[in-house]
Specification:
Number of strands: 7
Strand content: 5-15%
Distance between the termini: 107 Å
Order of helices and strands: HHHHEHEHEEEEE
Oligomer: single chain
Shape: elongated
């Protein structure tokens, strides 16, 4: 006698079941493969970031690693760019891993940042050299013609920092320098100083500046506040001889060789 239940049980398609199982297995293998690639990329990125923070602080150092990496990415790209479809084969996996590592390392080392450091508030940071070590100087000046000195009458007088001296002693030393410069026939004086505190001999410094009868200019600094930078004010005792019209900011850019021009 014919059994209907036996027909229902045997009506399945073994080929369809095997195809579904095969696709699930294939997707699982692909997911496992990309997971391994992602974890490997993260591990390499973590190692490279650690190296960047320790030994790749200057872009000229990082360029020796980035340049071969760029060549590798370009070589891998040449191998996959002719593919008409998006196939997740081994070549594409290697390209994506190298591409991600390249830009991650470039961002981590700030090799694409060509900004110069701004010297302000009396803090001098170590300048970043893009292609050359600090001791090589600023290579851009090698490319320009050296001209004759345009200001032969400009004289720069440097003074040692008044460490261990009182404010009065430092102001008295500056007053003596102004006197000597005036006696040498100077037509103007620029002081790379900013004055913040009053001293007991400010009257003497002001008297010397006024008796010089030449233009004397000085600087002012900035004070960080909750809303940004705020210009500092000259002490009241010096405002008569150093008004705001004779003051300028002392900020400047630190060039690649550490000089402020």
């Amino acid at each position: 006698m014919h059994d209907p239940a036996r027909n229902v049980k045997g009506s399945g398609n073994p080929a369809a079941t095997d195809s579904l199982t095969g696709r699930v297995s294939s997707y699982r293998d692909e997911l496992l493969k990309w997971t391994v690639i992602a974890l490997t990329t993260l591990l390499i990125n973590a190692v490279m970031q650690g190296l960047a923070s320790r030994i790749l602080t200057q872009p000229w150092r990082a360029i020796w690693i980035l340049a071969p990496l760029v060549s590798l990415v370009w070589f891998l790209w040449q191998g996959i760019r002719k593919n008409t479809g998006f196939r997740l084969d081994r070549r594409l996996q290697m390209f994506l891993a190298a591409y991600t590592l390249l830009f991650s390392l470039a961002v981590g080392t700030s090799v694409l940042d060509l900004n110069r450091d701004l010297l302000m508030l009396g803090r001098l940071k170590s300048p970043r050299n893009w292609l050359t070590p600090n001791w090589a100087g600023d290579w851009r000046y090698w490319l320009v013609d050296r001209q004759a000195q345009r200001f032969p009458e400009l004289i720069v007088v440097t003074l040692e920092e008044p460490r261990g001296k009182s404010l009065e002693e430092a102001r008295f030393e500056l007053e003596n320098v102004i006197n000597l410069v005036v006696q040498s026939g100077a037509v103007g004086i620029g002081l790379d100083y900013h004055f913040e505190d009053e001293s007991k001999i400010d009257w003497l410094l002001c008297q010397t500046v006024q008796n010089a009868r030449i233009l004397v200019v000085a600087g002012y600094s900035f004070r960080p506040t909750a809303v940004g930078l705020r210009r500092t004010q000259t002490p009241r005792t010096l405002q008569t001889c150093l008004p705001d019209a004779n003051l300028g900011h002392l900020a400047g850019y630190v060039e690649l060789d550490g000089a402020v021009r």
